[in-house]
Amino acid sequence: MTVLFADLTGSTELTDELDAEEVHALLGSFFDLADASVADHGGIVDKHIGDCVMAMFGAPVAHGNDPERCVRAALDIGRRVPILAAELGRSIGVHIGIASGEVMASGTGSARHLEYTVTGESVNLASRLTDKAATGEILISDSVHRALAERIDCSEVGELAIKGLAKPVKAWRLRAFRESARSGRQGFVGRHRELRQLEAALAQCRDTRRGRTIYIRGEAGIGKTRLLEQFQLKAERENFACHSGLVLDFGMGSGQDAIRSLVRSLLGLTGESSQEEIDAAAQKALEDGLLADERRVYLNDLLNVPQSTELRTLYDAMDNAARNRGKRATVAELVTRASGRRPRLLVIEDLHWADQMTLDHAANLAEKITGCPALLVMTSRIERDAFHELRRATIAGQAIVMIELGSLRPREANRLAAAYLDTLGEIAQRCVERAAGNPLFLEQLLRHAQEHAEGGIPGSIGV
Prior knowledge:
Blueprint: E1 2-9, H1 11-14, H2 20-40, E2 44-49, E3 52-57, H3 66-88, E4 93-100, E5 104-109, E6 114-119, H4 121-132, E7 138-141, H5 142-148, E8 152-160, E9 169-177, H6 192-208, E10 212-217, H7 224-237, E11 241-246, H8 256-266, H9 275-287, H10 296-302, H11 309-317, H12 320-341, E12 344-349, H13 356-368, E13 374-380, H14 387-390, E14 401-404, H15 410-417, H16 421-424, H17 426-435, H18 439-451
Parallel strand pairs: 4-7, 10-13, 10-14, 11-12, 12-13
Antiparallel strand pairs: 1-3, 1-4, 2-3, 5-6, 7-9, 8-9
Helix pairs in contact: 2-3, 6-7, 10-12, 12-13, 15-17, 17-18
């Protein structure tokens, strides 16, 4: 499992300026913020220790991506604490440590007081990394870095002497999560028919300046993302601006993340953009005519920008249905006007995790892009497939285009395994047979066999 410690800085100094009730309120605001970030990303708050939050990801419920959940929660806390400091007018910050590994998770205490907690070397390491981190820093252990190396932006801190550990440990300074990092995994093989179908839609959109929606469906690890990466490269060469949003499989209302990511990208923002940059981009969108002035209240919501006093009164007077209609209209208007200046490729990945709000946005976009040069491409696993929710969205009488991704053919799988033949020999072929045409599963089997001298092949690997 993965353990996080988030320690508030500046609160001790404020005890000399504030009375006990004010300090209590300050800590309460921080705990509300940090606890919400942990819960939104599927973690569990273990305890509050002074002005520090300890959280765990992977127990009592384990997921397939607990390090990712923890890192995202840490970045969210790091982003939100400066906003809280500005709201409170106090000089506070946060420093965070993260480590993963085996722990002992169990009930502990006495007959009079028993609580569920975790203990072990990883807990100690996460706590010590927090101590080593400066204000505003997130330090992660080498195990966390290995798990997410292709998807996070980090700098190596070097080896640190950690109290309680016999040897120095390597640590990394986390800067950001690469939301749209192109995969460095298996090579792209096969899928020629599907790629030609996507390229034909691209050409039609460019030539007619009319959009359409494409739905790519397949089992986990079958290559949906790799196909999209190739298509995005082609779209960029054809002068399409590409924007992506990922529906996360965790968090309360996390399905909204995909739409908010699209909006940020359409405005030239990233997940690392500061609040000042977000405010400036929102204002520029209105001044440049990408949105009508009356959309500002909904744009603020989509960007998590605080409402002005006047707009707050307007926003509070609406019911949720009116707010959601306004946000859908705002996203559609932004896409329509932006694509009028440059063709757009909009990608929403992992729609199978989407909540109803995201599905409503997707259906609305599918309906609106018919009159502008924009392609909307969505991916989904077969299980939890949401296609039936989008059937009402048609394009000039045409149904949404469906692309079903099946298993790789044997010769394609062999091409994928070719790089491992020299070192693995017959074992590589056994991996091909075991993977049954699933490229991600095949890659994981090959890597596992290469990393273990005995060449054992596991019966299954989580995808």
